[in-house]
């Protein structure tokens, strides 16, 4: 009996996963020029501001880690609801205008067809390529979410996490240690605010003010910056 139930479930899952599956040719008939329009919007923005690729890549990561890659990071706060983009770890979320511009270009081609979640996933890939990084195939067909809550950004991995906490955060999302190592390579791009590492440059532990495992010139630049900021 258990075997029969298992088989029936497996059948239902495989049928439903077929219906919702992402695919490389998802927009081939409904919006064949979407990918080119998105790449163009990212390229134009990059020509003006070389910080764009890092911004879009991080935005994609924050989107995917909360409620899956559903575009929820793009939603604005409305009424009493504070959205993800206004949550605490938004310190270096920026360049939302790039996704807005890509969306406008795509809407002009084929209104109401391409999800914002797909646009962000494609833009992140295009941004990494423009920055000189690797390329990858982006399967499409993500649906946009309608829920975005600032409080849920607490479940993003934090800069003070140790390796076990990082591994746990990734495994909760079905990601392996190998994924963690590979995706941490995202930090090849971009910058950090010294405030994100404040715990490592002030009263680190009983014997060291500064974490001795931090790169010394980076640590002293951060100390100088933080001192200047707080007078
Ligand atoms: C492994 C867990 C991760 C932690 C703890 C983490 C933490 C951080 C922190 C603290 C910053 C600096 C924020 C600031 O002070 O401005 C940052 C920036 C950044 N993160 Fe991560 N991150 C993680 C994973 C990822 C992943 C998976 C990606 C993408 C593949 C990514 C891409 C980026 C990028 C591109 C920036 C620079 C943003 C910019 O310069 O505009 N991060 N991350
Ligand atoms: C980050 O959140 C603050 C409020 O918490 C908000 O004023 C600011 O506009 C947000 N930044 C972005 C890029 O959305
Ligand atoms: C402070 O941290 C350093 C580097 O991790 C370590 O070598 C040292 O033993 C720590 N001191 C205390 C009192 O924990």
Automatic annotation (TrEMBL):
Enzyme nomenclature, EC number: 1.11.1.7
Domain of life: Eukaryota
Catalytic activity: 2 a phenolic donor + H2O2 = 2 a phenolic radical donor + 2 H2O
Residues at which heme b binds: 187
Alphabetically ordered keywords of this record: Calcium, Disulfide bond, Heme, Iron, Metal-binding, Oxidoreductase, Peroxidase, Signal
Presence of the UniProt keyword Protein biosynthesis in the record: no
Coiled coil ranges: none
Residues annotated as catalytic: 62 (proton acceptor)
Site, Transition state stabilizer: residue positions: 58
PANTHER family in the record: PEROXIDASE 25-RELATED
Protein's UniProt name: peroxidase
Taxonomic source organism: Stephania japonica
């Amino acid at each position: 009996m258990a075997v029969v139930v298992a088989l029936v479930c497996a059948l239902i899952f495989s049928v439903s996963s077929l219906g919702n599956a992402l695919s490389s040719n998802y927009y081939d008939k409904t919006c064949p020029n979407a990918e080119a329009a998105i790449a163009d919007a990212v390229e134009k923005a990059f020509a003006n501001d070389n910080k764009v690729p890092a911004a879009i890549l991080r935005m994609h990561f924050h989107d995917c880690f909360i409620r899956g890659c559903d575009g929820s990071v793009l939603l604005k706060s409305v009424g009493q609801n504070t959205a993800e983009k206004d949550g605490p770890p938004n310190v270096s979320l920026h360049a939302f205008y790039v996704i807005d511009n890509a969306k406008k270009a795509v809407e002009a081609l084929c209104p109401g067809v391409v999800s914002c979640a797909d646009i962000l996933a494609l833009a992140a890939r295009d941004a990494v390529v423009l920055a000189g990084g690797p390329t990858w195939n982006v399967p499409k067909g993500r649906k946009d979410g309608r829920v975005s809550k600032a409080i849920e950004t607490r479940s993003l991995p934090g800069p003070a996490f140790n390796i076990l906490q990082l591994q746990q955060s990734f495994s909760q999302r079905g990601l392996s240690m190998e994924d963690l190592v590979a995706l941490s390579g995202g930090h090849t791009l971009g910058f950090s605010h010294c405030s994100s590492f404040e715990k490592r440059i002030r009263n680190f532990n009983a014997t060291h003010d500064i974490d001795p495992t931090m790169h010394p010139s980076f640590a002293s630049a951060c100390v100088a910056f933080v001192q200047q900021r707080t007078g």
